[in-house]
Amino acid sequence: MELIGTLGPHLLNGVALGLLFALVALGFMLIIGVMEVINLAHGSLFALGAYVAVALVTPEGGLRLTALAPYFSMPIPGRFVIALLLAPLAVAGVGMLLELCLRRTYGRDPLYGLLLTFGAALVIEELIRLVWGPTERFLPLPTAITGGVTMGGLVYSVYRFFASAFAVGMILLLWLFLQRTRYGALIKAGAHDSEMVRALGVNLTRLRLLVFAFGTGLAAVAGIVMAPIWGVRPHVGVDAVVPAFVIIVLGGVGSFWGAVIAGLLIGMVVGLTGAFATAWSLVSMYVLLVLVVTVRGRGLLGKKSVLER
Amino acid sequence: MKSGVSRRTLLINGVLVGGATFFGPWRHHHVYAQKKDKPILIGLTHDASGQFANSGQDEQRGTIMAIEEANAKGGVLGRKLAYITADTETTPATGSRVAERMITRNEVAFLVGAIQSGVANAIGQVAQKYGCVYFNTNSSSPTESGKDCKRVKFVWDGSGANFALAAADNAVRTFGKRWQLLTNDYVWGHNTSKATREIATRFGAQIVDEILVPVGTRDFSPILLKVQQAKPDVVAAAVGGDDFKVMRQEVVKLGLDQKPAWLNNQQDWPDIYGLGIESVFGVFGTTWYHKLPLPGVTDLVRRYQQRWPDTRIDVPGNVFYNGYMAMWELIRAIERAGSTNNLKVIKALEGHKMSAKDRLQHHDAWIDPETHHVQQTIYLAARNDKPTDPTDYFKIMSWSEPSKVRDVESAKTCKLQSYESTPTYEQ
Amino acid sequence: MTVGDDPRTLAAGWLSPGMLVAFAVFGTLPLWIERVGLYRYLGVEILIWCLFALGFNLLLGYTGLPSFGHGAYFGIGAYAMGLTQFHLVADLWIGLLAAMLAAAVVGGSVALFISHRRGIYFALMTIAFGQMFFFIASKWTSVTGGEDGLLNIARLPARLGVVAFDLTGNLAMSYFVFAVFVMATVLLWRLVHSPFGKVLRAIKQNETRMAYLGYRVYVYKWASFTLSCAVAGLAGGLFAMAQNGAYVQVMSLQWSGVVVLMTLIGGGLVSFWGPVVGTVVYFLARDLLGAYTESWLLWFGLMFMLVVMFKPEGLAGLWQDAVARHAAHRRARAVALQPAASE
User: Fold this and answer.
1) What is the structure's pLDDT at A2?
2) Helix runs in A158-282, H state only
3) What is the Cβ-side half-sphere exposure of residue B267, based on CA atoms within 13 angstroms?
4) What residue of B is the nearest CA neighbor of C155?
5) B4, B126, B186 member nearest C147 (Cβ)
6) Other CB atoms closer than 10 Å to residue B417's CB: what's the count?
7) Residue range A195-213, pLDDT digits in tens
8) What's residue B235's pLDDT?
9) CB B126 to CB C244 under 8 A?
């Protein structure tokens, strides 16, 4: 009973972390599923989302135009919501540019796509460093979602609950989108058989562009939501992309719920090891990956995919 | 029809390239008419990116201001001072490479600057190899004046042990015996926590747990959960740089800053300024404060504001102070030694006394000849509940005389390299 | 055009014109490097990374397997060098041997897990393992020194029978590293032009076909990975000596990616010397461009992207194209100069 008492809070923490990991992985998974491109720039775009949000919420975050002074006198909740809506759009624009660059690598060995996105990740991170500087930034939050809440004698962060709830919401929204809307159906069809989709008269090029924009926009949303938890610094992208692909490989490529379950699993493992050996908690993620992949090569719920080509 | 590269074009291009190699901007050996014309080049090895970028930049403001003031007075030994900077990226490997380049390519006369102890160590190693005198301005791991001490290295910041000594006795009596340690997982963190553990238990504390905080931690929830579960009287945190900034925000947001009592070893000014007085919590140490009621302090603050009007850190703090004072003492040591020869400068520094008036502190300071660690006044502070202006974050509670808080344990492990084994170095 | 399409190179002996040029340049490097405004330590660094990149290219350019976690084996070699010195015996040769062995053993174990994969799956797994080793090295402070690294690694003297060379100075170190570089390069050259090397190249072209032909593809891939790790370990051991320390950052994803960048831009996919060219370009960019602008890595990254998009064969590929064009021109002119067949 006492063990549950000690572990319980860490488990709760782990579930919250897992939902957030799943959120981070969503956009990544979408792009792999449809376009069979491993977008290593996912992490840098995640970071870019956070930075653009900082620029939109704080006056010294980048937009130093005095003409915008009335905008910055708006209360923080308003600016935060605007950032949450506009920053992903900006990042989606960058994502579309990246897709244009990637076009030259379609049809070739998928390795080239991987290499290109790796280069893009580097370039975007350096751009961030150039524009915003190397020091850490902070994203101010509306006071309604900050602070602590006491449960069972321990204080938990309110923001984590908000972030977890947000993640659950996004996951459900995305699932509904894929299941119930025409565009979602197109995306799923494109994932299943892109040739057929083109044969049916759909503009595959435009579809790919939109999927990329959508996927990178999701990365940006994750970046903004995670900013208060992981910090806003140029290198935070790496902290995001590595768990993202661990989740994909673990959950299996092409499986939506595989990614969600994998995210939760990883979050719980990290959270629980945090109770015993905090310093090693992140390594547990990799150990889990190696174990699962050795036992079941395609991950938990995976289908045959570009990874195996 | 001709195509391709003709032989003549090749020849011309070859001459141009060859000529450029010999006469172009690549040559860095300038020929000076007299030795006097060659400036004394100082290599500034401050972190400009990574965890300690803020502090690195602040310390650089100190060293550069001192250099400029000295040049305004005519320089040193009739020579002007010049400086070059390089970003050590808060990474020991980069520090090592930067030191090699500055010494072998740029031929600096002295190396100055460090915040992160790992970087300071790496630079110190390279400096000792060539004999170049190195001033560790702001890294406060107890081992810097302990097992990592070097004949060419001089340490200007109070060490984690100094601060622990100044605070521990009071803390056990005031707050309680159950202590928990939070340790940043690198040299400074480990050694500071080790010193704290040893000192606190000496005064009767009981260490219930030590939690390692990996460098770069942003998510403190598991750690804070463990802290709450352990219910200590005192949490002694050896967490620095950005990690500490984030931890502090988390602790204050969750309302955990009142109970337990937080002992934060040393609080660097750039890490706290701008976050608001509310983010100050616990008890912590510092080597200097801009509101000390001593003559000369307001003048330094004024000069700082005149020279650096654009920085967001409106008033100087301990990091700037350490850089500024260290650089000035280097300049004075060169004057005393009458040369830039490394062994002469080292001898001019060992045992050197600096008056309280010059140091703008309450007590005289001196450079311990056995460890090369500056023994100085250590101040204990907490949040100021009656600030006189928006910059008045700290309330200075007490100050300790240097000899009372001397780190005897580290001194035992320090073995300075002999003068004979240290290569001669002069630029 | 892939590596070794030209029948001349397949029949190459122990040396080649390219090798002689490279040896001439690197052998004399310490003598003129300061004249061009650089410094000897940089020369040592460049040679060590060239060695690393050449070993890495065995995997990427010749076998077609992309590893984004090779920095880990470089780092393991560096730590092994230091730890051997501190805890076993302070001997240069044993230290270097230990560095190679440690990296090969760890690499070989990893290769057991991933040698049935290829392409992207392979790359992702190498990232996972690389990160794992990076984390372990950062946290295992009692052994590796954690974030601060393993310091005070001495440049032990190179003893050959009765003669011992002191390597503490950068000049002597340059020559020692050069000697190791020469030996390793010649051995690697022989390896890629041996039957083993041919099989690797065939696997890169079409793995399934090789499997159908009866080759045990898994074993060849495993061997290629392990050998490249051994070379990485050797380079790491040398670097630990050069820096007098072993630091953990080289094991990060960033640095593992840098070696991919260098190898590809230089043209490792089509040329044995590609990695060397790429390494030199990277370090020159860092030190020369880096002195003027903080964002040199941005330009380097953009260049990399352009290379991947438009010329994956890299700089060596451009050179080969130029040589081929020149040869074609000459042939065309020779034909044009011949008298007309019929008047």
Assistant:
1) 62
2) 158-180, 182-192, 194-199, 204-230, 236-251, 256-276
3) 30
4) B129
5) B186
6) 14
7) 777 788 878 888 888 888 9
8) 93
9) yes
CB pairs under 8 A between B and C: 86
pLDDT in tens, B398-417: 888 899 889 888 889 999 99
Instruction: Please judge whether B91 and C249 are an interchain contact, meaning their C-beta atoms are less than 8 angstroms apart.
Output: yes
Spell out which residues of chain A touch residue C260, defining contact as CB-CB under 8 Å.
Answer: 115, 118
Locate C173 and state its tokens.
């170190």
Q: Does B247 contact A at CB distance below 8 Å? A: no
Number of neighbours of residue C46 by Cβ within 10 angstroms = 22
Residue C133 forms contact with A (CB below 8 Å): no
Which pLDDT score is estimated for B5? 46
pLDDT band at A7 (very low <50, low <70, confident <90, very high): confident
Residues of B within 8 A of A151 (CB-CB) are none
Nearest Cα residue in chain B from C168: B129
User: At A204, which amino acid appears?
Assistant: L
Q: What is the dihedral of CA C85, C86, C90, C92, to 10 degrees?
A: 10
Query: In chain C, positions 199-258, which contact chain B (CB-CB < 8 Å)?
Result: 243-245, 247, 249-250
The answer to whether residue B30 scores a pLDDT higher than 90 is no
Whole-angstrom distance, CA of residue C155 vs CA of residue C166? 8
3-class state of residue A308 by DSSP: helix
Structural domains of chain A, ranges and CATH numbers in brackets: 2-308 (1.10.3470)
Residue of C nearest to B212 (CA): C139
CA distance C316 to B26: 26
| Rounded (to 5) percent helix, strand, coil in chain B | 45, 15, 40
Q: Are C301 and A119 contacting, i.e. CB atoms less than 8 angstroms apart?
A: yes
Supply the mean pLDDT for chain B: 87
B245 touches chain C (CB under 8 A): no
User: What is the mean pLDDT of the segment spanning B245-252?
Assistant: 84
Q: Which helix (H) or strand (E) is B423 found in, with range?
A: none
Tell me the Ramachandran region of residue B176: left when phi exceeds 0, alpha when psi lies from -120 to 50, beta otherwise: left
Closest CA to B58 of B113, B124, B110: B113
Contacts B25 to C, Cβ<8 Å: 37
Q: Are B152 and B127 in contact (CB under 8 A)?
A: yes
Question: Would an 8 Å CB–CB cutoff place A275 in contact with chain B?
Answer: yes
- Region label for C204, one of left (φ > 0), alpha (ψ between -120 and 50) or beta (otherwise): alpha
- Residue A140, classified by CB atoms within 10 Å of its CB into exposed (0-12), middle (13-18) or buried (19+), is middle
Per-residue pLDDT tens over the stretch A213-245 = 988 999 999 999 988 888 888 888 887 887 887
Query: What is the spatial distance between Cα A191 and Cα A216, in angstroms, rounded to a whole number?
Result: 17
Nearest-10 Cα torsion for B152, B156, B157, B158: 90
Of C147, C244, C294, the CB nearest to B125: C244
Q: Are C128 and A294 a contacting pair at CB < 8 A?
A: no
Other beta carbons less than 10 A from residue B352's beta carbon: 17
The whole-angstrom separation of Cα B4 and Cα C331 is 13
CB-based contacts of A125, cutoff 8 Å, min separation 6: A44, A47, A234, A235, A237
CA distance A274 to A272: 5
Most confident of the following: A37-46, A191-200, A296-305, B355-364: B355-364
Scanning every residue of chain C, which has its alpha carbon at the shortest distance from the alpha carbon of A118?
C257
Q: Which residues pair with B135 in a beta bridge?
A: B112, B154
Residue B211: list chain C partners with CB under 8 A: none
Q: How far is C155 from chain B (nearest CA, A)?
A: 11
Residue of A246, A279, A308 with shortest CB distance to C128: A246
Q: Is B252 on the interface with A (CB under 8 A)?
A: no
Between strands A148-151 and B206-213, the pairing is unpaired
